[in-house]
Give the backbone structure.
Amino acid sequence: MYCLPKRNCMPCYCCESFNGCRGCGYHSRPQECSYEECCGNANDSANDNTGNYPTIGENGNWFIGGVDTGVSAKGEQGETGPAGPPGSQGPSGDPCRCDSLTIPIQKTIDIVDLQSEIDALPKLLMADVKFIINPGTYDGEILIERFSGSGSITIHGANAVGVTTHNIMRLMIFNCSIPGVFISGLTSTATSDLCFDLCYNTGIVEFTYCNAIAGTADAHKFYGICAMNSRLHVRNCKISNKHVAIRVYRADAFVIDADGSNNRVAYVADYAGTIHKITTGSLSGLVIDERTRSGLIIGPNGANV
């Protein structure tokens, strides 16, 4: 017969119970039995022909003869060791990028850096952002999309009618649910695509002193400003040489002093879109007003045009 070789794990096999010891006669507390005292020189399970040798079951308990003793084979928790020496300095982490903006931002930047500055903003704006743009040309698209919160975005270039010193290819504003996106003094140089394109914005998108005049006299390429499911304000903008100067589709637009010429159509209100001409300005085309699919164009006196 065998006992377990670890004194503090469980009683030896000789013990009938934990309350006494039978066979070895050495101890009144079986868990203190030693291997040699109980079992002589037997030192492995191969010497036991009875099959009643100890094993550790899947539950972590000692088993004898296939029977769970209910005693854990795991020793008692030892004392906590001393603290080790400090480790070496780890590598620097990536720069922190906040999940929301809570402090207003106003920066003066070059126009070629505008898109990267927009991309660096958190999508949740709880404060206003204003970029003052230095004169220059950026031969690419500017995309403002998926901003939410109570803050607004302002991009300020030129501050006078007809000034074309702040040039981009085109500007797109998509899926923003902030109070407003305000664009002033930018000129789109696009000749074969939309110049200023906005879709699915819940706040106001306002263009002031902006220009979409590239192209030749008879090109009539695409649209100057196109708004879909958005709220559009146009103030003192110049749009020329376009297929349509201002088009709204399921959107509301308020236009003050728009200028421009050589357009095929000056205003198009489509699919229940509404254009309010607060002042008529001198925006012209071969056709001035075009309404389709329940579109509505309202003149300065409040009458349908």
In short: The radius of gyration is 41 Å. Residues 1-47 have pLDDT under 50 and may be disordered. The helical segments are 35-39, 114-119. Residues 1-74 form one domain.
